[in-house]
Structure formats: structure tokens, C-alpha cells
Give the backbone structure.
Amino acid sequence: MSSIRENIEVVRNDIKDICRKQGRDPDKVTLIAVTKTIDEERIREAICSGITDIGENKVQEIMDKYEALKDVSNIHLIGHLQSNKVKYIIDKVKLIHSVDSMKLMDEINRRAIKAGVIANILIQVNVACEDTKFGIEMETVDSHIEYASKLENIRVQGLMTIAPNYEYVEQTRPIFRALRKKFDELSNNQYSNVEMKYLSMGMTNDYKIALEEGSNMIRVGTGIFGKRVYNKN
């Protein structure tokens, strides 16, 4: 079985190869190690292997690991965020990837003002309109961006999506391509508090295609740490 260091090297090499073919700078791609259910020892092994950014799906896991990891990594919230839990992580995460409503934006802004911080967010887009996934519809991206631009303590940093788990990974390509097109369109608009800096798309199964379609932020868990083992207790 490959080590965490070896797995990270494989992903890094994929990033380099794809970026080289496209004339892109691989250093401009952020690799987020998804640490859902992963213990601190293994996370530290990843950090020692060059990982600077980790992504958690749940607020509680951020709370549990924060003190041990706050000084050695950038922490991202990549899972669904309920409004009533914003207060726990508002001053702890570098980036909230999963903003999917104006109501949630309002709460993030309110909590950010109270905490005296600027909240960096991505708008999560449900490109494929899957009932089982969170995210706004493509048709409403512009209105959400415009709304966010008026909130003083929020900075929109880009877009995020989770592609469907298709039988054939190549089927994800139109999903990523569509969001990249919207990302490029928004990059040409001038909104206050909005910068199209990050296009967060691609996970263990589909990050190569996401990179080929322009992603500059990928979220890899199983591809780094191996298959997750869930506590049944």
C-alpha cells in the first residue's frame, strides 16, 4: 500500500503534467487534502509531505482539530454549512467553499462583522442540478454574486462544484467546462468584494479532468489517505 507521501507525490505529478501541457503554472494550483475522519497524526504526515491546505466537511471536525492544526495548515470548510453553525468557524477557516444561499451569506456576514474578520467564500454551484447535492443553479449564479457584493464583510473568491458520480469519469467534463465558462465570464465583471481567484472543482476520482478543464483548486481525500474507515460507534 502506498504511503501518504507517495500518494501526494502522484497527485503533484499529475498537476505538473497537466499544467505543463496547458502552459499553466502548477504552483498556481492549490491541492487541498480532505481530512474527513482522518486523525491528527496522519494529517501531520501529509503536512510534513508538503500539504499546506486541508479541507473538512464538518464543523465539528474543524473544532476538534483546530488547536492542533491552526498553526501548520490553512483550514477550508468544504462541506455543507448550516446557518446556525457559522459562528463556530467564522474566525477559523481560510475559505468556506460551500455557500449556497443568500440566507447563509447574510449569516456569514453578520458573524464576520461580530468577530471582526473578513470571510472568504466560494459560491457552490450545482451544475448538474442533482437533487442529492447542495449548491445553487447555474441560472442564479449572477444574482447570488451581485447580492454577495453588497455584504461588507464577505469576499467572494470564486466558484465551487461537486460533479456527479458518473459511471464513466469522462462524463464529468461538460460539468467542469460549464463552470469554467461561468468563472471566466464573472472574471470580466467588476463587482465590489468579488474576485474570481479560485475555481474549486475536482476530487479523487475526477481531479485530472477538472484540471484539464481549468480547475485551480482540487480536493483530494481518498487519493491521499486511502479509503476512509468510519467509526461505527
